[in-house]
Amino acid sequence: MPRLPRIDLARFYRYAMPVTVAAIILILIALGIWFLYLHEKQSVTDAVSAGRGLGTDVSSAFPGGSAYQNVVSAVSSVFGGGTSATSTPAGATKAAPQLWEVATAPAASITFAKDGTSTVARFLDAASGNIFDADPATSVIARRTKTLMPRIAQGAWYGEEGAVLRYEDNAGIETFSGSINAATTTGSLSATEAQALAANGPGDLEGAMLPRGILDLVAASSSIFYIAPYNGEYAGTIAKPDGSDAKRIWTSPLAEWRAQLAGNRILLVQAASEGVTGSAYELGTDGSSSLVLANLPGLAARENATTHAILYSTVGGSGAITLSVRASDGKVQTLPFATFADKCAWDPAAPSVVYCAVPHAIPQGSVLPDAWYRGEVHFDDAIWRFDTATGSVSQAYDPHAANRSLDILDPMVSPDGTYLAFRDAASGTGWVLRLTAK
User: Which of 71, 137, 149, 378 is a plausible cystine mate for 129, CB 3.0–4.6 Å?
Assistant: First the structure.
């Protein structure tokens, strides 16, 4: 029987061990490289997901996670004013607090819409371009769209489901106009059904790009008006919301205009600045125009869509702010508080009533309104109600009651006069105030 060869174990270990150790080191190095590669790819994935609101931080400046979580973090535990928490469980809905922060991430725009018989606050998430509906009666927030359009700077609304999103990229100012194509019908949703819509997935925002370079745009139920460069000047164009049937009806050598749609009229106001006089014109859809306010310093204005009274503010040489109302017959009355017209909104349900955010104090030494427009100064506002027909004035709400300090921007009153929606100029977040406490 043949004998097996004898193995010299000492010699084997002397040569094999270094090879084994080297192999282990190479494997560990390879695993380390693979880990770093995966980590880098995950970072890219997280960044994309963040913009889409899919569960990661939108930005380090925001306190929450995904766009949807940022929004619904303000829904439940709604004791106290404006308190943020987690989303309300299905079937456990209740009315929001009188002052409700509907999102903890900045909103590019906020408005009111009808959801069946309910009035909801509809807002546009600035980070993702997603649209959300917040129901103050139930505290339910439903995500309406999932179309990704990052870094929205401004929004406008038309009809029941239409939205205009504006942003700037390397090519210039871009404007997209579209309508919500809902994944689930929203004609008459209960609170539970609204939550189901948010859980099952929102719809798309479908539409078309409008001309590049639009400087200012306003929208209504069935039309838009925008200002854009044209042949060395600046032209005002009226069109359908999708950009069709566009018709230039006005031109100006000046670029700095702010437009408003008030019924069948367009109010054009020269952009306000300290020490610079401005004027306001009413423009008809046929191109006819009339001067309504002339050569006023630091001018800002808001027109009543029903009565066509114009609320306007001016800033004197000493920084004193004056707020006035010009009735349709030309009569002028001065309101008993100092604030910018940009901080005021007419009540559609009571056309003689206007709500204004009035600072507790005006910062001294600031160039106004420029410093406020640039975000260099912020105010601490209370909301006041003024009836232009009777002259009665009263405080509607002070955010201090909810331990909040808010610099109110772009306010608007719901069609039934129940709610006031606005953005906080300091944080960009969207808010809803119930004007009558329950």
Answer: 149
